[in-house]
């Protein structure tokens, strides 16, 4: 099954930088006709929109603001591709005294926002002849990475949500992809001292998988190796992540 990007309409959350910006640029190159680039502060989208203002449309969206999500249906009546990319990370370990506070904040952005946005846009997505929902989780969602424990919990929740959504939509024209990157060269991964691919690679690999009918995307060498370790022996990956501090 190949995926035809030509003439499609897409929405990318957290589009103003990092992996989200990479998705917008890659969608543009793929021939999508309209890309709603969503950001909390639309003034942060000026440079991106200037690449092709006929295609890239700025949209204000804080994914934790329910009223902003609901209002989107007034702007967006047609959509084929939804990229749930926006995310935050807190440096909180699982056993921290205030771990719940950090986890709640991360859940709002990393899970509940994408869930509500997807539900609100689903009626329009169902009208697509060939649609896709791309949920950005993390390799830390496959196995808990203790130094970013609460973040890992939210990304595991995103993984579970993605699996369930895929089952719900199995009889539809919508493919549901889960994306599980390792460290990528963005602001979020500034503290990780290792080889980090450019953010566009996440979008490129995701779209390759979409076109090849694959639903789980491991877009870099680190996540690919770690997932192979997990498949071999799940506890081994947990031990590897624990040893990485
Ligand atoms: N970089 C990595 O190594 C890595 C690895 C695995 C998974 N990921 C995931 O990839 C996704 C993108 O991360 P990134 O690496 O590109 O990080 P980033 O450079 O920190 O970008 C995060 C984006 O999310 C937006 N955002 C944060 N809170 C938001 C909210 N409440 N509503 C709407 N947008 C919000 C940010 O907007 P503002 O500019 O307004 O803050 C920014 O555009 C995240 O889901 C992240 O968890 C990243």
Question: What do you see in this structure?
Answer:
The chain is an alpha/beta fold and 245 residues long. It has one domain: 3-Layer(aba) Sandwich (Rossmann fold). It is built from eight helices and seven strands; from the N terminus they run E-H-E-H-E-H-E-H-E-H-E-H-E-H-H. Helix 1 crosses helix 6 and helix 4 packs parallel to helix 5. The protein is globular. The N and C termini lie far apart (41 Å). The mean pLDDT is 97. The structure holds NADP nicotinamide-adenine-dinucleotide phosphate. NADP nicotinamide-adenine-dinucleotide phosphate (NAP) binds next to helix 1.
Reported for the largest beta sheet, the result is:
7 strands, parallel
What's the CATH architecture name?
3-Layer(aba) Sandwich
How many domains? The number is 1
Number of helices: 8
Fourth CATH level, the homologous superfamily: NAD(P)-binding Rossmann-like Domain
Instruction: Predict the CATH topology.
Output: Rossmann fold
Element string (H = helix, E = strand): EHEHEHEHEHEHEHH
In short:
This protein is α/β, with parallel strands linked by helices and 245 residues long. It has helices at 18-30, 46-51, 66-75, 99-125, 149-168, 200-212, 221-232, 234-243; strands at 9-12, 34-39, 56-60, 81-84, 131-136, 174-179, 216-217.
